[in-house]
Specification:
Elements: H1 2-17, H2 21-41, E1 46-49, H3 52-61, H4 78-88, E2 97-102, E3 108-114, E4 130-134, H5 144-156, E5 159-164, H6 185-197, E6 203-208, H7 210-222, E7 231-234, H8 240-247, H9 250-270, H10 272-275, H11 281-284, H12 290-301, H13 307-314, E8 327-332, H14 345-349, E9 354-359, H15 378-393
Parallel strand pairs: 4-5, 4-6, 6-7, 7-8, 8-9
Antiparallel strand pairs: 1-9, 2-3, 3-5
Helix pairs in contact: 5-15, 12-13
EC number: 3.1.1.32, 3.1.1.4
Transmembrane segments: 14-39
Subcellular location: Membrane
Length: 401
């Protein structure tokens, strides 16, 4: 009995690590993966800026733009980063104060304020620096990426206010109108209201995905009228035609497009009672892609002759040249929502107020880093450093020409 068990143990050892072959294979694979990761995955981002002054400001005040970005080594692929981020990143607790404001058409807009009255560095609430945050397509103030930006702002002593698009955060639609990337009327109402409310406090803005597109479109439309100190935009889609084409490729349609379409439809269905007075909601509910949803609903609601006209107007790439305030844009080269061949590289080079930071990996609002990316992401660090630089050294950006 003893001899048999001894032989069996030896056989198991030989089977698994006979002559150390199994161990060698594991070690060899690990070494090869580490080499591949360090050579091909971990890279410094590319910084493109239209003017030398803004370029030097970013290199000096935001060291993150010059540092190698090390994506989480077990999930650096674009789609994996995009899909995992909402599940692996922590959701910090934030206690908001809600405010409903009325738009000129009688609709209501929900703002969530984080006042940060505990701020040690800015105890005077009348002059406390404030960041306006714009979530993505169907996002609200409860998205993990918004909560992380609020947390970063809290640590710096700043106040935040989140602009929730109409009908997404639990409030009723009072008029048959929602929102889109091209229409900036609600954003203008919100910015004017915030500036009136805290007229002595410096204000900047940060937009994510569609929120970033709306913000960039607003800056391009208003030009020198904009009174924001600075703007940072994450994972914006620059050319909507290219974004939708990318999301209609079979795998991305399966992973992202169908899900987002159903989220948009759920939002419409929630407000069916008021919306069906003007729109064919049953027809909208049969849409299979974002493009079909926009053809049947969004472009119709905002009065465009065709969906192509809407997509052209919604694409911020055409408005970059008119931006007059310091704007930093972060995109990942592997973002399937915003393909890199449509990044506004040439337009950015022509405008001294704009800078584009491109990471090799990061996906769409992913930018996960560290072994277990629960807390801060690369995007959070860009937000923190740029926001601090604008509020504390922004005077050096007063004349970027």
């Amino acid at each position: 009995q003893h001899d048999l068990s001894h032989d069996f143990k030896n056989q198991v050892k030989v089977g698994l690590f006979g002559s150390g072959v199994g161990l060698s294979v594991v070690l060899g694979f690990s070494a090869a993966y580490a080499c591949y990761y360090l050579i091909s995955v971990a890279k410094k981002p590319i910084l493109i800026a239209g003017g030398k002054k803004f370029h030097q400001f970013l290199r000096g005040k935001c060291p993150v733009v010059s540092e190698t970005y090390y994506p989480t080594f077990w999930c650096w692929e674009s789609r994996v980063q995009t899909l995992l981020r909402p599940f692996v990143t922590a959701k910090p607790w934030v206690n908001y104060r809600n405010e409903l404001i009325t738009a000129p058409d009688g609709g209501q807009i929900s703002l969530d304020w984080f006042d940060n009255d505990e701020s040690a560095s800015h105890p005077d609430q009348s002059t406390r620096p404030t960041v306006l945050l714009l979530p993505g397509l169907t996002g609200t103030s409860r998205e993990s990426y918004i909560l992380h930006m609020v947390q970063q702002s809290r640590d710096l002593g700043y106040r935040c206010v989140v602009f929730n698009n109409r009908g997404v955060s639990g409030e009723k639609l009072l008029t048959p109108r929602t929102y889109c990337a091209a229409n900036t009327e609600d954003l203008e109402v919100v910015i004017e209201h915030v500036q009136r409310t805290i007229d002595k406090a410096p204000l900047m803005a940060a937009g994510v995905s569609m929120g970033g597109m709306m913000l960039a479109n607003y800056l391009g439309r208003k030009g020198s009228e904009v009174r924001l100190k600075g703007v940072v935009v994450f994972s914006a889609g620059w050319d909507v035609f290219e974004c939708t084409a990318s999301l209609e490729k079979p795998l991305d349609r399966f992973l992202f497009n169908s899900y987002l379409t159903s989220c948009l439809q759920a939002s419409v269905d929630r407000h069916r009672t008021i919306l069906e007075k003007k729109y064919d909601i049953d027809h909208v509910m049969k849409a299979k892609t974002i493009r079909e949803f926009d053809e049947r609903f969004t472009s119709v609601m905002f009065g465009y002759p065709s969906n192509d006209d809407y997509y052209r107007d919604a694409s911020p790439i055409h408005k970059i040249k008119s931006v007059q305030v310091p704007m930093l844009c972060l995109n990942a080269a592997d973002d399937v929502f915003s393909p890199n061949h449509a990044f506004p590289v040439e337009a950015v080079k022509q405008n001294p107020n704009v800078a584009l930071l491109i990471t090799c990996h990061g996906g769409h609002i992913g930018f996960l880093e560290g072994l277990w990316p629960r807390q801060s992401t690369y995007m959070d660090r860009v937000f923190r450093q740029f926001t601090k630089a604008v509020f504390e050294n922004g005077s050096s950006l007063d004349d970027l020409h």
